[in-house]
Every structure is written in C-alpha cells, then in structure tokens.
Amino acid sequence: MSLPQLSVHAPAKLNLFLHIVGRRTDGYHLLQSAFQLIDWCDDLQFTRTTDGVITLLNPQPSVPAEQDLVVRAARLLQQHTGCAYGAQIHLEKRLPLGGGVGGGSSDAAATLSALNQLWQTGLSVPQLQALGVQLGADVPFFLFGQNALVEGIGEQMQALMIPPRWYLVWVPPVHVPTATIFTAPDLVRNTPGITLSQVQFAYMTNKLIFGRNDLQAIAEKQFPEISAALATLRHIQPNGLVRMSGSGATIFAEFEHEEVAQAALQAMLRSGLPQRGYAVVRGR
Ligand SMILES: C[C@@](CO)(OP(=O)(O)O)[C@H](O)COP(=O)(O)OP(=O)(O)OC[C@H]1O[C@@H](n2ccc(N)nc2=O)[C@H](O)[C@@H]1O
Ligand SMILES: Nc1ncnc2c1ncn2[C@@H]1O[C@H](COP(=O)(O)OP(=O)(O)O)[C@@H](O)[C@H]1O
Fold first, then answer.
1. d(CA 219, CA 204)
2. Which ligand has the nearest atom to the CA of 15?
3. 172 and 42, same structural domain?
4. Are 100 and 244 contacting, i.e. CB atoms less than 8 angstroms apart?
5. pLDDT at 2 over 90
6. How far is CA 162 from CA 201, 203, 210, 283, in A?
7. Is the per-residue pLDDT at 47 higher than 70?
8. Which of 158, 180, 208 marks a domain boundary?
9. Residue ranges of the alpha helices (H) in 60-172?
10. In CATH, what number is assigned to the domain containing residue 208?
11. Pick from 143, 158, 173: which residue ends a domain?
C-alpha cells in the first residue's frame, strides 16, 4: 500500500504598502500593511511516514536542512501535538530567499497546514497561527490565506478586497538584512494609523497607489541597486504603483493587463540591470 501524500503550493506575497505606526517596548515595530498574495509559488510534497523522522529530501544549498523553516515547522507541530508520525518532504524552491516576498514564511505555513491534515493532528487555524508566529512574523498571514490588512507585528489581520491586477516582480541582486533596516536611526516610525475602510475605499476606487513603504527610503539609501531598479521601473511604468515589497530587495509594478506587464519585463531585461529573479504574475 502506498504511503499517504499531499502536494501544496506556497504562494508569495507583496506588501502593497507598509506603514510603521509605532514601536513595542521590546524594540519590534508595529505595522499596518496590505498583504497581496500572488501566483508565484514554491511547491511542496509531503509523504507521511510511521518512523517519526522528519526528512527534507532536497535541502537548499544555502540553508542547512535543520535550519530550513519547512523542517522547523514540521518539528514544532510534531512536538506541540506529540504526534508519532514523521514526514518526507520535497521542496521545489522558486521564490527568492530573503527577498521580501515571504517565501520562507509561506513554506512554513504550508508545512503546518499540510502536516496538520496528513498527521490528523486536528489543530484549528488560530492554533496553527499561534505556533507559526514563533517561526516568522508573516506565517499567521499565510495560514489566513487571503489578501489582508495586517497589523501589530503580523499577528492581526482582516480580509481586504483588492481589484485583480498583474504584477511585474523584480529582485535586485542584493540581500537586505531586515534587522538593519528596522534599526536605522532615520527610519520613519510614526506614520498615522489608517482604518480598514479607508484602505478598502482606496482599492475599490482603483487607487492601488495608496500609502507607501516606510522601509523603502532606508533600503534605497543602503542599497543603490534597489534605487536604480526602482528608477528604471518607474520610467517604464510611469502610471500606477511601483514600490518595494517588505524589507526588500524585491520591487514590483502593478498592471491591468498581462501583455503590458510582459512588455515592461522585456524593457527591464533590455535595460541590462542585474537581478536575481523576476516574474510576471497575477494577484490572487
Ligand atoms: C516587515 C516584513 C513584512 O512582511 O518584512 P519581510 O520579511 O517580508 O521583508 C516582515 O513582517 C518581517 O518579518 P520577519 O522577516 O519574520 O522578521 P524577523 O526575522 O522576525 O525580524 C528581523 C528583525 O527585524 C526587526 N523587526 C522585524 C519585524 C517587525 N515588525 N519589527 C522589527 O523591528 C527586529 O529587529 C527583528 O529582530
Ligand atoms: N524554506 C525556506 N525558504 C526561504 N528561506 C528560508 C527557508 N528556511 C529558512 N530560511 C531562511 O529564512 C530567511 C528569510 O526567508 P524569506 O521568507 O525567503 O525572506 P523574506 O521574509 O525576506 O521574504 C532566508 O534568508 C533563509 O536564511
């Protein structure tokens, strides 16, 4: 008899805007951000085993298996529930590592959700989210699984309707250390709070350009490669939203039509700017 298996997609996200509205006493920053899921995914396949061992069949060259968020998520669920099953996991990695599109957090969320089914551990989504936030601030959002206005440090979310768009996603060839951006002395930390209905109204009236990314000015100053890519993308797409996602380095532009987004990608490629990944994808 074949072993029970489950295959899942782990989508990326873009932060359409990201405001820092305060700071907690432990130094973590309070955010308000529109999280848009996009059709750019890692793929994971899980096979249930009876030996209790968690195996990542194809570790990534730059992440030792023991440190991979997929393995850490599986161990966390196993320890929390006392489950005796194990799993063999295959990860088809497409999303740029540490790129601000949440790939690692999405992999962790997909693992918690898939193994909760395969192992029949019966945790609710809020219970999985409480486990997931120990692995990364964006894990609760990926378990929520819908576009959302996310608040706090990532643990509070409300569904947000975002009109369908195509996105050109471009990853400049730099790795931005999230902590360095958040600790910059000149980071803006007092953007006024907004309400869900203000954001919802802007998006329903097609103003995707709403807000800004407060981390972007710091990232542009520290990494001229991000600044150069944004300038080129703004030149190619002068109308509509062009912005950095999360703490970078990924930047994106929004389009109503796929053909226009594809033409913009060709123009970016012709510009000769270096990159470590790109995609033209639909918002979910
Ligand atoms: C800001 C976001 C938006 O999606 O950026 P991206 O990671 O996607 O780029 C995320 O919430 C990031 O979450 P995550 O990537 O899990 O951050 P962590 O590793 O927990 O944080 C790295 C460091 O950044 C700082 N940090 C992070 C998140 C936050 N809300 N306030 C902070 O001050 C802290 O100094 C922390 O030690
Ligand atoms: N499965 C995984 N995918 C991506 N990154 C992982 C994974 N497991 C561990 N990591 C580590 O987590 C870091 C942040 O991951 P990622 O979610 O891709 O970044 P970001 O939050 O900036 O989008 C990576 O730089 C890597 O060292």
1. 30
2. 1
3. no
4. yes
5. no
6. 10, 6, 12, 9
7. yes
8. 158
9. 69-81, 103-118, 125-132, 139-144
10. 3.30.70.890
11. 158
Clarify whether 93 is annotated catalytic: no
Domain limits for position 19:
5-158
Task: Kindly tell me if the per-residue pLDDT of 1 is higher than 80.
Answer: no
pTM across the whole model = 0.97
CATH number of the domain that residue 15 is part of: 3.30.230.10
Examine the domain organization and report whether 22 and 127 are in the same domain: yes
Q: 219 with 250: CB under 8 angstroms?
A: no
Q: Could you tell me if 147 and 190 lie in one domain?
A: no
Q: Is-catalytic flag, 138?
A: yes
Known binder of ligand: residue 97?
yes
Q: Is 277 left (phi over 0), alpha (psi -120 to 50) or beta?
A: left
- Ligand 1 pocket (Cβ < 6 Å) reads 15, 27-29, 31, 100, 102, 136-138, 153-154, 178-179, 182, 246-247
Q: Are residues 83 and 180 in the same domain?
A: no
Which of ligand 1's atoms lies nearest the C-alpha of 33?
Answer: 3
CB 31 within 8 A of CB 152: yes
Ligand index nearest the alpha carbon of residue 42: 2
- Looking at the fold, whether 116 and 32 belong to one and the same domain comes out as yes
Q: What percent of the chain has pLDDT over 90?
A: 98
Total of domains in the chain:
2
Cα–Cα distance between 133 and 131 in angstroms, integer? 6
Among 93, 138, 214, 221, which one carries the catalytic annotation?
138
Q: Whose CA is nearest to atom 13 of ligand 2?
A: 98
Q: Is 90 exceeded by the pLDDT of residue 3?
A: no
